[in-house]
Target: ABC transporter permease
Amino acid sequence: MTVHASGPASRGKPRAHRLAALVPRTEWAYRPRIAATAFIIVTQVFLYVLLWRALYGEGGDTVAGMDVTQAVTYSVLATLMGTGRVIMEGASQETAQSKIRDGSVVFWFTRPVSARRYCAWRGLGESLYATAWLLTGLAVGLAADLVAPPPSTAAAVVATLSYALGQGVFYHLALLVDLTSFWTITSFGVNRLAAFAQTLLSGALIPLWFFPSWFTAVSAHLPFSATVHVPVSLYTGRIPAADAWPHLLEQAAWCLLLAAVGRLLWRRAARRLLVLGG
Model:
């Protein structure tokens, strides 16, 4: 008779990649929340389309180098990129602030998977979930003639690559804000400030081209613009595909820099673990 070990060693290493499916499965379990997210996105898109068409009127004018078709396309894509992700993150309870408050943050540092890897895999799941909303909305927008297709295949390719890099920047920015809870206990104020900066400086609310030139020049090189402004500008052709590489390299640089800062904060957070509940 052969006895097979049933302990942890026989099971091998934990399959951390399964954590990426945690967010989509959780959202699917709460279908009313999906319906609410869809309603909010549709409402915002509808109002933004009415706003831009009213601002441009029937003259077909070009403002800041952008016509009404580009403005509507930009607005729809920016809404799809930003709103679904923000709403979904707001519904999530997997934040350092909430875990410190109820005491369960201790499990982040006692699991077989490190806290940093756990959050990274979960962040990947959030990005995939947000991308599903984006692709669905893009398909509907193209079918309804609200969104114009990219001007070329090259524009679609670089826009896709830029979107992936932008999601990485978005994750690391949100993570850095969340990690401040280890020092401030609550990150409510920091979250409000970061949300305002993200909405304004990313071009999610108003395209950066409509701001004064000095403001556009500064904000274009901040990490916030890498999340929305750059990928949407590449999609609409406002940034030509041939000129995409400096923007892609800047996005990649922000990803690496923010990841390095996040790694440092994780190490310091582990030494400063504070539990209020439990």
The chain has one domain: 30-277. Residues 115-143 form the longest helix (29 residues). The mean pLDDT is 83. DSSP finds twelve helices and no strands in the chain.
